């Protein structure tokens, strides 16, 4: 998918001026080429494989809601606010990839999923995605109030169990999910609702000090983790050690502030982000956070395998683990 940032009809030859592969490239005529974008597709009245229904909301930011098959008209279900993967610069809640993935996830978890279409860099650089993601979480929680300034979504209003709110994300989306739960520790949610759980799959965290034996195979400034953050949040206070990308760095807020009662972390054996994810969940254990924690590492898999192949046996294994986590009381 090519996005025109500004018109330029006088370029004699298009030249690459910035390469952030495998995410995107920018050319001298100001065109932006996203390399891993999945096609935008409409929601489904009912997915023929999973039976999950989906629809889009005209909100700020927009969302796509996934509803599994109901057993009765009064059934209440857990509700998950989901943030997609993509390094803060690619991906969409409305993509073909996420439609298939979240159909399977909603079905396995038997839960409502609200996937957030947060803004991407470079059109809107961070912290825009964090701010819009918080607004989406507030919008979901506002459904518990008797009076609202908007028309409530009937799926959320009639079938969400507001005692079972989870925040979930994959890769950069897991980074957002972590930061939403941290923010909820200081900024109350509407109706004084509480987040029950955080689900962070293959979280994108980074920092200036290597963790593990092979995390930095090149100089820090040449690593993909560093280059992505520098591109999506060039004005981040503290740079690569800003707590939003390095929550275990020196001076970062204590992770005991995670405002939920249970957390689920997953990693993939061959993922370059694995060591930092493991260090993160060890830090949560050590910091005095009081809650239930579950960690899963899937052997033989790479980053976000479950998104790209949700019907694989390893993806189903991970979904079963998440289902058990969400539905245990």
Strand order of the largest sheet: 5-6-8-7-9-10-11-12
User: How many helical elements?
Assistant: 8
Task: Report on the biggest sheet.
Answer: 8 strands, mixed
Strand runs, count: 12
The poorly predicted ranges are 1-11
Ends distance: 44 Å
| Secondary-structure class | alpha/beta
Explain what the structure shows.
Helix 1 (96-109) crosses helix 8. The chain is globular. The chain is 27% helix and 21% strand. Strands 5-6-8-7-9-10-11-12 form an 8-stranded mixed beta sheet, with helices on both faces. It has 8 helices and 12 strands. The model is unreliable at 1-11 (pLDDT under 50). The protein is an alpha/beta fold.
Structural topology:
Elements: E1 2-4, E2 16-20, E3 24-27, E4 31-34, E5 53-57, E6 63-67, E7 77-83, H1 96-109, E8 112-116, H2 128-142, H3 154-159, E9 160-170, H4 172-184, E10 197-201, H5 224-232, E11 262-268, H6 274-286, E12 292-298, H7 305-308, H8 313-327
Parallel strand pairs: 7-8, 7-9, 9-10, 10-11, 11-12
Antiparallel strand pairs: 1-4, 2-3, 3-4, 5-6, 6-8
Question: TL;DR?
Answer:
Residues 1-11 have low confidence and may be disordered. 27% of the residues lie in helices and 21% in strands.
């Amino acid at each position: 998918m090519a996005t025109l940032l500004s018109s330029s009809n006088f370029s004699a030859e298009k030249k690459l001026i910035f390469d952030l592969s495998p995410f995107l490239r920018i050319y001298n005529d100001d065109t932006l080429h996203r390399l891993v974008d999945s096609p935008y597709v409409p929601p489904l009245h009912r997915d023929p494989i999973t039976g999950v229904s989906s629809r889009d909301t005209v909100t700020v930011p927009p969302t796509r809601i996934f509803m599994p098959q109901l057993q009765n008209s009064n059934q209440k279900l857990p509700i998950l606010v989901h943030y997609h993967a993509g390094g803060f610069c690619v991906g969409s809640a409305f993509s073909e990839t996420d439609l298939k993935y979240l159909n399977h996830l909603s079905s396995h978890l038997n839960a409502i999923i609200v996937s957030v279409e947060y803004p991407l860099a470079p059109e809107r650089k961070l912290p825009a995605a964090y701010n819009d993601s918080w607004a989406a979480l507030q919008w979901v929680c506002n459904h518990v109030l008797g009076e609202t300034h908007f028309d409530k979504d009937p799926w959320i209003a009639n079938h969400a169990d507001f005692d079972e709110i989870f925040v979930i994300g994959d890769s950069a989306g897991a980074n957002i999910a972590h930061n939403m739960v941290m923010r909820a520790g200081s900024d109350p949610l509407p109706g004084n609702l509480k987040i029950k759980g955080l689900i962070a799959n293959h979280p994108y965290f980074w920092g200036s000090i290597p963790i593990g034996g092979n995390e930095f195979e090149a100089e820090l400034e040449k690593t993909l983790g560093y280059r992505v953050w520098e591109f999506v949040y060039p004005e981040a206070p503290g740079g690569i050690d800003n707590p939003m990308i390095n929550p275990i760095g020196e001076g970062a807020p204590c992770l005991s502030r995670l405002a939920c009662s249970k957390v689920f972390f997953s990693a993939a054996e061959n993922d370059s982000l694995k060591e930092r994810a493991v260090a993160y969940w060890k830090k949560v254990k050590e910091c005095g956070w009081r809650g239930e924690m579950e960690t899963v590492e899937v052997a033989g898999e790479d980053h976000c395998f479950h998104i790209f192949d949700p019907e694989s046996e390893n993806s189903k294994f991970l979904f079963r683990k998440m289902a058990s986590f969400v539905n245990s009381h």
